[in-house]
């Protein structure tokens, strides 16, 4: 395979992994609400945060994220600034599946950090590492191995002919 073909294929895979994570990006034209369900919720106005505990489900723009716990941090203007989910985090959207122990979504930076054995599937493509960082605004993706004994793993499946 030529170097150009491999680079193009890797770029397409990275874009396919990043694009679904526009889930919490600010939408200027058509603001979509974030729906959150949990067993219980507490809001702390002085800390500008909410805590959701037990069977947390987040729905937004065809994306579903589940976890055991989630904290939402707000700006002084009460806009969502950061979402921190932990405990069996699962994110699903249009053929994408991501699993990790923790997920931190930085709304303003348009960045998602998956930690604790992060695994991401997009179709037949797969990647894993201790930490996966996705940057929505400039199509960057970082995968860190974690411990010295571990390594980053990426599987790029061949394209299926139609």
Describe the fold and architecture.
It is built from one helix and ten strands; from the N terminus they run αββββββββββ. It is mainly beta and 162 residues long. The protein has a single domain (3-155), classed as Sandwich (lipopolysaccharide transport protein A fold), CATH 2.60.450.10. The two termini are 20 Å apart. Residues 2-29 have low confidence and may be disordered.
Shape: globular
Estimate the mean pLDDT confidence: 80
Please write the CATH class name: Mainly Beta
- How many separate structural domains? 1
Percent of residues in beta strands? over 45%
- Number of DSSP E strands: 10
Q: What's the total helix number?
A: 1
Main beta sheet: 10 strands, antiparallel
Terminal Cα span: 20 Å
SSE arrangement:
Blueprint: H1 3-18, E1 35-37, E2 40-44, E3 49-60, E4 63-74, E5 80-93, E6 96-106, E7 111-122, E8 125-135, E9 140-144, E10 153-155
Antiparallel strand pairs: 1-3, 2-3, 3-4, 4-5, 5-6, 6-7, 7-8, 8-9, 8-10
Provide keyphrases for this structure.
10% helix, 54% strand, 162 residues, 10 strands, lipopolysaccharide transport protein A fold, mainly beta, 1 helix, ten-stranded antiparallel beta sheet, disordered N terminus
In short:
The chain has 162 residues and is mainly beta.
